[in-house]
Amino acid sequence: MARVFSTEDGNLQTASILTSRIKTYSDIDLTFAKKSNNDIFKKNDAAAVKQAVKNLLLTNFGDKPFEPFFGGNLNAFLFNLDTEFDNEDIEDAVAQALANHEPRAILRQVIADIKPDQNTVTVKVKFQVVNVAETQEIVIDLVRAR
Which strand (E) or helix (H) includes residue 110? Predict the structure, then answer.
């Protein structure tokens, strides 16, 4: 990014000012495993975003106070009749949740596999963390307990 100076700024013969900022993402590890000094571990960069995406998708609508439509609401698909929705509905719900609530992840692919006889839904999400070339993958297995 280059800045353009006016003649009032003086000394126009010097190089333009370039700025860059390295953004790191960090979050606490939700397993709450303890280090030897009784502190908890933290997740950085892609691991933090991966954990955030998984938590987002497993959050049901209404679980977060004052944000009734936060989350992926994937558990709702387990308690509907299997004729009321299909793979595309689940894939759209995942894409919508990531687009609305996780700006650090660029969605690359969503594959939903519904197994009505086993009362399970498997969702595979491939995404790329912003400013990182590596693709991350999360597999979420939802099982309806009777």
Answer: strand 105-115
Cα gap 27→125, rounded to integer Å: 20
Under 8 Å between Cβ of 109 and 123: no
What CA–CA distance (Å, rounded) separates 47 from 115? Answer: 29
The third-level CATH classification (topology) of the domain covering 26-143 is Nuclear Transport Factor 2; Chain: A, (3.10.450)
Q: What is the pLDDT of residues 31-57, one digit of tens each?
A: 888 888 988 899 888 999 999 999 999
Q: Say if residue 65's pLDDT is above 90.
A: yes
Q: In 3D, which of 124, 114, 101 has the Cα closest to residue 52?
A: 101
> Is the CA virtual torsion 5, 23, 54, 61 positive or negative?
negative
Q: Return all residues near 2 (Cβ < 8 A) that are at least 6 apart.
A: 16, 17, 18
- Residue in the structure block whose two tokens are 């894939």: 91
Structure-block tokens of residue 32: 């709450």
Q: What are the residue ranges spanned by the domains of the chain?
A: 26-143
Sign of the Cα pseudo-torsion (136, 91, 26, 133, in order): positive
DSSP state of 7: G
